[in-house]
Design brief:
4-stranded antiparallel sheet, binds magnesium ion, 43% helix, single chain, 13 strands, Ribosomal Protein S5, domain 2, 6-stranded mixed sheet, globular, binds adenosine-5'-diphosphate, 380 residues, alpha+beta
């Protein structure tokens, strides 16, 4: 059964009537440019063919009623005049409530609605289910309230929701990627001025995600610490963000920055340069360079930025031994997925081999699957 069918059927079951619209958002994976969006650097994500869908219908009552197949239980009811973050097992709803609240703050007269969320995008695996949930909610809010935002304005409202309601101080990459995705392309995004350049992805490569299945508890606190380290380094270098710094500038300040801030800053400036080189290598079809840049990105995230973990390091090493063109951790780190570029006709064998080898050497199972670049979030 397609996600849309199951989403609409669940809507009928939960709310006892037919849904009127279905919004769909892809997840995203980042090819390169990790932990630089909040320093206004360069990133290169693409929207992936794993989705969250939201079937919805407007309500006369000034409230929202939401239910997710991933959570179950009774639908949550939230009054439009009482939009605030929820705790505990209801906290998943903060991504939805936050988006509604941000549209209201932006002056949109939000109409009540009921909605059901369904999909095949794994939660918390680094494929950005959070941005996808925000995007489908935003599209539903726009539709029932009779307003339309540009994908970039929608992305900013979604980011504000994630900051203020989910408590995650994220950059803008995830929201831009799921809202602007373009089939067959990665998006090279300049997070300083939000210029998006679609880059065609080579058809002879497959994009294989390997989900380590681990999520280390320190992830959230460490994210905020990295952000604070970057801000401290930028202030010592007398720039607004590390986007304005270069490697020679960072090297010259090595002593005054001290070891930790030096390494954090070195990651950001070298990663920004790698994104530009990656774009050139994509355009010229230079597979060796793609692989080397992904390896250097992973090493920098592991050694300088310290956001990898033993499982991800092992998967990256294994991938290169098993014939990947390139492999690196992707997303926030401390678990989640690696992204692997593999020759298309070798992808099935690669998926099988990496799962088997990891199980045999590490005693744990991992999941490997291919993703393809697709269009961004839309009402179906
Ligand atoms: P990622 O964005 O990488 O998947 P996050 O931790 O940023 O990981 O976001 C995952 C959270 O988003 C989940 O823990 C849950 O609160 C919320 N979420 C995402 N998708 C859904 C869904 N389909 N139903 C309910 N909550 C969801
Ligand atoms: Mg997320």
């Amino acid at each position: 059964m397609s996600i849309s069918t199951s989403c609409q059927q669940n809507f009928s079951k939960v709310f006892g009537r037919e849904s009127l619209i279905v919004a769909r958002s892809p997840g995203r994976v980042n090819l390169i440019g990790e932990h630089v969006d909040y320093q206004l650097g360069w990133v290169m994500p693409f929207a992936v063919d794993r989705y969250i869908e939201c079937a919805a219908a407007a309500l006369v009552e000034p409230e929202i009623r939401i239910w997710s197949s991933s959570i179950g239980g009774a639908p949550l009811r939230i009054a439009l005049n009482d939009l605030r973050a929820l705790d505990g097992s209801d906290s998943w709803a903060n991504y939805v409530i936050g988006v509604v609240a941000k549209y209201a703050e932006a002056g949109v007269e939000v109409t009540g609605f009921e909605s059901v969320i369904d999909g095949n995008l794994p939660l918390g695996a680094g494929l950005s289910s959070s941005a996808a949930l925000e995007a489908v909610t935003a599209l539903v809010v726009e539709n029932v309230s009779g307003t339309a935002k540009s994908p970039s304005d929608r992305s900013k409202l979604c980011q504000a929701a994630e900051h203020d309601f989910a408590g995650v101080p994220c950059g803008l990459m995830d929201q831009l990627a799921v809202n602007h995705g373009r089939v067959g392309h990665a998006l090279m995004i300049d997070c300083r001025d939000l210029t998006l350049t679609p880059l065609p992805l080579p058809e002879e490569l497959s994009y294989v995600m390997v989900n380590s299945g681990v999520r280390h508890a320190l992830a959230d606190g460490e994210y905020a610490k990295r952000k604070a380290d970057c801000e401290a380094a930028a202030s010592m270098l007398e720039v607004t963000t590390l986007r304005e710094a270069t490697l020679p500038v960072v090297n010259a300040a090595r002593e005054s920055l001290g070891d930790r801030l030096y390494r954090r800053a070195r990651h950001v400036v070298t990663e920004n340069a790698r994104v530009e080189h990656f774009a050139e290598a994509l355009t010229s079809g230079n597979r060796t360079a793609l692989g080397q840049l992904m390896a250097a990105s992973h090493a920098s995230l592991r050694d300088d930025y310290e956001v990898s973990c033993s499982e991800l390091d092992l998967l990256v090493e294994m991938a290169s031994r098993l014939g990947a063109v390139g492999s690196r951790m992707t997303g926030g780190g401390f678990g989640g997925c690696t992204i692997n570029l593999v020759p298309r006709d070798d992808a099935a064998r690669f998926c099988e081999d990496i799962c088997r080898t990891y199980r045999e050497t590490h005693g744990q199972s991992v999941e490997a699957f291919t993703v393809a670049p697709v269009d961004g979030a839309a009402i179906l």
